[in-house]
Fold each of these.
Amino acid sequence: MGCGSCGTGKPGGCKSNGGCSSGGCNRMNVHDWLANLPFSDPESSCRIVEISFNNGSRKDYYRNNSLQYYEKGEMVAVEGVSGFDVGMVNVTGELVRLQLKKNNINEATAEFKKILRRATESDMNKMAETKTREKDVMIRSRAIARQLNLQMKIAEVELQADGRKGTFFYIADDRVDFRELIKVYASDFKVKVEMRQIGARQEAGKVGGIGSCGRELCCSSWLTDFKSVNTNAARYQNLSINQTKLSGQCGRLKCCLNYELDTYLDALQDFPNDADMIEVMKGRAFLIKKDIFKNLMWYSMPDSTKHYPLTIERVRKIKALNREGIKPEELEIAEVVSSKPKEIEPEFVDVVGQISLRSLERNSKRRRDREKGQQQNRSNEGRGPQNRQGGGNAPQRGGDGRGPQNRPGGGQQQNRSGDGRGQQNRPGGEGQPQQQRSGGGQQRQQGGGGNAPQRGEGRPQQNNRQGGGQQRQQGGGGGQQRHPQSRQGGGNNPRQQGGGQPQQPKPGGGEPS
């Protein structure tokens, strides 16, 4: 345990800089719940004070013969062996009187050492100097015990504040003859030696630690009276006999096994004691455990691995019938009702198509659009121009060696001639490339050697539209020329090709308009 602030001393903290106002410096801390209560006769208050040493590792009672009042957490100098010792005030007032009564100590007749004074600065410096030697003394004392082949373990060494006495706490299973050891200790450490034997539980309390419950060890925080613990305490509480789980940090059975033992013993008085075995028509049933919370007794059959719960009344009836030599047909298993709410397992539903993730949909749509655009670009680069039906406009390309395509029926027709290009003429023509479209359509003609508009070549074209028609003219000789032409009333206007001379052959020998 440790506190975060001190009542006196600078800087704040428990590093032996003064008295602790909260009492958290001590491992065996006690709260004085009678400290603030007024008393009618202050003169009759208890003059005995409980002093703790070595951060609560050891406590003792001292008499306050002076008229000074000591508060909890103050450091005082007390009478020691051929000198003085320094400790912390732990409990004062009427609570000490209750502690003395609990420990069967008579306040009037018992002999108590005296409190000398409040600890001075020289006393605190002397104690701090002495405490720095304790670790080296303990290491050296263990080595000496091994050299003398003594079956003992030095658990802790406590030196008096003035350094004139040393108390050695040791653990041993058997009796140890340490007469020679005391002589060696006295000559090496120059102190008066006192040997005290402690048990494993006291050692764990001095060392401290965290238990399996997650709290500080009981023996290092509040427990001072250690009672014997055996495995019967675990059997009464229906605990499995597992040494690993039942043992504490000290290696012995946990002291907390005795905490609820009386409650279990009181509850087990309502259960029959002679019901370890009952007989039915199927065979014998043997007692497995007793449930004091639901008042049930669990039995098992030799030919089955199941456990059968029976009520106390049913067990007594079966036992009474067995005494008369009657074996009942069935055990009449009791219904076990759980107080815990039953957990409903979630049902798995097919939610394919019901869950919409907008971010994924947006990413998928972008990917589809990107793939579609790439596919269109590849198809446009690998295919020639096509004229589709429906009166649309399609550009013409020349000089690539590609054959023109003419589609009938009101669409666009393309004729390409010259430079090894194929020609397609409608019936009635004289070998002249032409395109005709009726009913407000479009006609295109290209002369020999002319270049159709291509990607990255030629100049922009100029179109002059009148009356909803469209007319284009391209001259030969490698150049491109466009002449605005007019369309009237939805008639057909041919294109002129070859040196600027108009040629408009029509099917059936018609004349140009």
Note: Residues 4-23, 387-513 have pLDDT under 50 and may be disordered.
Amino acid sequence: MSMGISSAFAASITITHGDNYESGGGSARVYNAYKVFDASYTTLSGANDADDVDDFTYTPDDAAVSYSMASDSPWVSVMTAAEQTWFKVEQAANGDYVVTPAGTDGANYKTTAHAQAFAEYLEANIPATATATEVTVDGSAASVDAGYYLIVAKDGKDAATKLALVTTDVEMVEKNTYITTTKTVSETNYNVGDIVTYTATVTIPADTAISELKDGSTTEYKDGHGPIILHDEMDSALSFIGTAYNADTAPNGYSAVVGTDAFAGYTLSTTASDNCTFEITIPVTSDLLGKTITFTYKAEVNSTAATDTGLVNELFGELNGYKTTPDTVEVWTFDFNMIKVFDDASDTNLTATFALSTSETYEAGSSTTVYYTDAEHTATSETETEFSEVVTVPTNAIALKAVTGGYVKADSDDTGTVTTFTATNGTAINFNGFAAGEYYLHELSTSTGYNLLDGPVKITITDTTTGTGTSRQISHTVTPDDAGKIKVENHSGTVLPSTGGIGTTIFYVVGSILVVAAGVLLITKKRMSREG
């Protein structure tokens, strides 16, 4: 350390982010650095004599620094107030002020508790005319004069105020933490029409600033005291199901909890201006500090879902301009192809009618009128009465919606759906919107001269997806498979394949036997007549 004359000199302040920071694309946090009084050295050091601002401790080299305030400093009234007991402030002959640590040896101002109390006093009494140097988190170093600085978040987001004795270039780390978010789902394949349940969480640090509305406003918040906003964007093939939370009921499965306590202190908007599907606004209250809020909500896979494609749901949190890195999850659905072929491959007039179900046995559905003995339907009646109701047994066939090239499994909002379909000779049909599993193709009728299949065709879809996240490769296989299609064949003629019935052959055989038997009976009768 070399000796030198007492002087002031230039320095700089750099601030890096605190815990849980995520680069989510939001605006960087900005701090205001207020120079409370000047610092001059009588001893200059080549080493960094700056303080560890994060825990309010100070280096022994502070003893080589003298402090002063100009007579016109806006901080004079703050430092000369009776309640300011941390430093002694005396006016010199030239009108300026000499500032020295209070106490017999000045050591007490180096303690964490002492420094923090002083910082809180200064922050509560920042003069209206005081100027500050802005320091952006993770930004370039801000040039400042040597001095004793109060550093606070520009918009009040940082609950931990900091003091810094800046005598040379100093690097600081934010003491406060950031909100964090998560988004989860059972990432797997679904049918169109299935309901997918999502879970989202937001963890609120204990030092988060409480939300405060601007004076006289019911919607606008003070700078740095805004609410947490969760932004959720769903793929267009996912239809959000949810309404604002009700303290008594959770319609459509929409609910929220804080730990084990019911939480209803938020609003939900499905008219967000940033292309989000919906936003959840959560005002920060004291009882939420240090807690994790969990939201559960649902969406239906709709009939616009493309096969082997991730249906993305993305969530990020925002607080006072800071944004978390988006959490992204996916679900997906599959397809298969079938082709109907007849013996005469050139006849495009040949057709067959089918239904698709998840059961090996096809139920066409029916309606039956049930009669009762009285108006209370106490017992059924074997004869018609005036007390009746129609009991409908629905078909177990899967509802389908016609699209270009085939069909898609219908969702709850689709209209004009069908439960049977016609396949034309040689024409392939695509079926989309199915989860992995087993399905059955039932042939209900076919063209004249051709025989129905003797049972349903079993279709098996297997999820062969590999990887996770950005490395996920969504894929599936289908059996049976014939060049990428399920081939369904119908045959004509009296000799039928093993997949058909016994056809007309039995009638020819039985007819021949009857003719022979009749002839034998006739001859026998004639002989008996002559002998008689």
Note: Residues 302 and 413 are 8 Å apart (CA to CA).
Amino acid sequence: MFQRFIDEGFLVEAGVETLILSNDIKIDGLIAYAKAQDAFIISKSLIENYTSSLAKPAQQLEQPKTELVLESKKPETAGEPKKAEPVTEPPAEPSVNIQRPIFRALASEFSSKIEHIADRDVSGKSTCTGTVDDFISLFRDRYRKISSIMKLQPSQNPVVNYNGMKNGERCRFIGMVRTKTLTKNGHLILEVEDEHGVVKAFIGNRNKELMSVAASAITDEVLAFDGAYKDPFFYVDAISWPEVPLNKQKKYIDEDLSIAFLSDVHVGSKFFMEKNFIKMLDWLNGACDSEREREIVSSIKYICIAGDLVDGIGVYPNQESELTILDIYDQYKAFFALLDRIPDYIDVFLIPGNHDAVRRGDPQPSLPKEFVNGSSRKFHFGSSPSWFKIEGLNTLMYHGTSIDSMIANVSGLSYAEPEKVMVEYLKRRHLSPIYGANHIIPEHDDFMVVDEVPDILHMGHVHKNGYTEYRNVSVINSGTWQNTTDYQKMMGHIPSPCLMPVYNMKGGTLKLIDFNMTI
């Protein structure tokens, strides 16, 4: 029985076989009814609708009557025109109004499997008072976390600290880059420090390959240098980043469930594409254009939103002229009123961005509860960055404020391909490695360290969609729901609004749903 449905392209809900047999339902009739309803799953509700339609007697439609008029015909006379005989229209076919069944998503049948990794969330844990000791604690914590990752990497050389270096012996030194200087002869010297001292790492200009590798080294990141110490320099012949291990395994789940990703909604801005956003919300409720789309939306169990939920107030000069909602509380009220239209079986995760009502510096705490009053559904709030386990997949969400500084300081990166910047974060195992280029709050615990490799890395901020797979980590930048602003036009930025990525956790595949349309 099931094979017949599968051959016809249908999914089958568990337990329908008993219902079919107990009602003595003809398979051919049920399949014909399902196709007429444009259904994609043989479900219990579909069968109940079908049996109800069989129970109703067909109405006897009154056929339009045709009056037959008998006339005696006169003999035709030459030249006399023939009279046209009356023509009766054939009976009109009765119209059948087929009503679509209520959309019922497969994802609604599964319980949520989520975990918020609270010890990696800065919310309620901020200890910063702005002292020099705070900064020292931040960089020491960064060094210890990343150096511990690098000590696990295979190496032909012994790992030593500053005090353990011996003149002329080869070794591996793990340190944080303080300065980077190109000499007048074209040599490169990096000042690198650990907790015990500072060495001058020397790279000769003849080693073109190593010079090219070292060009992407940035200050304040932790690297491993292989070479030999000969006073006063440490002569480098290899540089390593913390990286994602080559043996990182890609995770899958058994259930056909998906995660949808959003970011940079900017409710309250006159550039917010509200009609397109509402189109997306309707789509989540089953208003799909095709059977294939209905299958995708039926699998969506989770939605992750990576910050800039609203446009905010006073974020940049003269912002008021570009706002439709001038009160920050009203902006969030409008935002959550929209999110209340998301089906209840979908879990929604939210983190803040630089436009939201939290501190500007990273790491940002989660959105205060005072801005969520009035919403009728439950949300999962986290800081930026934040870690969630979704169906067992480690999901790292960060708004992406430091993307600007990375593009400005690392050659080959651009706003057109944000996924390449995100890969650099994974290589360096840090979400904001350059201190001073963007706002960093000196917490005693460096929450920006990627001390565990995620399965999914999700960001926003630059209003440009980008996707890639890096060493079995799914890298997703989910773009924006805001149209091109005057500032972006001035800077030459070209956003990609209203494109929603949907990641299927069973197949490990990503689909892009386009909600751009003529309104």
Note: DSSP finds twelve helices and 20 strands in the chain.
Amino acid sequence: MASGIVLAIEPMVSTSRPSPHPALPAGSLRQADQGGLAPRREGPGPTHEWISTHRISAVIVGSLVASVLLGLVSGAVSPLVPGSVVASLIGIALAFLYPTLALAGTVGVIAILPFAVVPLRLGVAPTFLDILTAVVWAVWTVRLATGRDRVRFPAPVFMACLATGVVVTSYLASPDPLSLNETARMFAKVSLGHLIVIPVAHLLRDRASIHGLVGTVIVVTSIEAVIGIGLYLVPRDIAYRLLAALEPLGYPVGDTVLRYRPDTDILRAIGTSIDPNMLGALLMTGGALAIPQLLATHPIWSRPVTIALLAPIAMGLLLTESRGSWLSLGAAVMIVGALRYRRLWVVIGVAGALAVFLPQAQRFTEHLLSGLQAQDRASSMRLDEIRNAYTIITGAPWIGVGWGIVGRSIDLEFTRGVSNIYLTIAQRSGIPALVAYLSVWVTIALGMWPAIRRASVEVRDDGIMLGGIGAIGGALVAGMVDHHFVSFPHLVTLLWALTGMVLARAAINLDGTSVVNGAPQRASAK
């Protein structure tokens, strides 16, 4: 993995006699005279040159042709169809011109409309996330095929592919019948979500693109928090109608749209994430990225802006009543504090004292303590799930029992499932798959450790590396009490996109050197 200091090698001075032919390198004329092959042309190939020179013209011509065709279609069909297609084509064209836009759009959909499906029914109903994920893969694949990029993170790429291969093999050999049903589609989405680390790590090629992605994650997370707070505060009948309005996009309707703490009438914030625990996982991630920005010497924006974005994230996280997300954000802050910002430990201590002594915090403190002591129905159900998972794993340790009959939410009846990402993998794909999954994280951690140590003492610290490590660590801690980061495509994609971001950040030198077309480039001084 490219995590060390990139050395700029000066070209060696040649002592050979120059060629008598000015258009060819030394020795190549003699080779041609002897009937040998002409020297291979250096530099980008013709395909790469054509794309670099004519991509704008190609996009314009293609757009004109598409506009004519769509205009004909709109005369026979609803204008919604061509309008949606035009918007999609424009977005795809911009994504190929500016790959970071595809990444920003992906995290935006993950935060705001993670379950929204395309409202046009043309035989299939892909989600917006499916389309954007495909675009991200297509953009990087084209860059790879045309020589504009290369595989720069061989160890993480190999381990991610290996772990996914083990899980796919277990799925194919599992007792569940193989068919193109919803289980197969969900499994494919989750598998591709794990592999999103590959294109993301390669498309983020400099500090500016990394800052843009991290800033987008924080902003859209804050927006989703505001949505969740707003739906929490408005009258419940209005909140229900607003959420039911998302039915054309595939969102559920019915009595379970609004979510409550089990056995109580205490409402939980859900935003547009359907489940309060999934909203909590999202807000935890955004909070873990935002908190280091308050202490960084060179944050991506001013501290007042960070505070304004972080405030709704914190409030929304409290209103989710998601104890696992509270604990995972605390773990993320502790990780960042251990690596560099020791003052965060003081903040954790003060926050703990306020939670104990403030009367306004008693509701949340008692809820957390009841979960830690397994005194309520939700936490006791989790203990039953763990015992059930142990029985299933011992009965099918090698290939698991398959990914069918996905367990439902914690306040409903569970069938086959456990609120733990590690037991979920072992239960559904076997112990070898769990070992492969953990090996990916170990490989990434060992490869990034030099970069993490540099970030802990870096003078011009932007908080990105430590924030990313904290978010990943928080997600892995959350995996002890929830299964969302291996079961739901949007959170799986978010976790591994952040992992790709951290890999890309680790590959950038302290002096701002980035990688362009597979070669180190010096960034301009700011």
Note: The chain is about 65% helix and 0% strand.
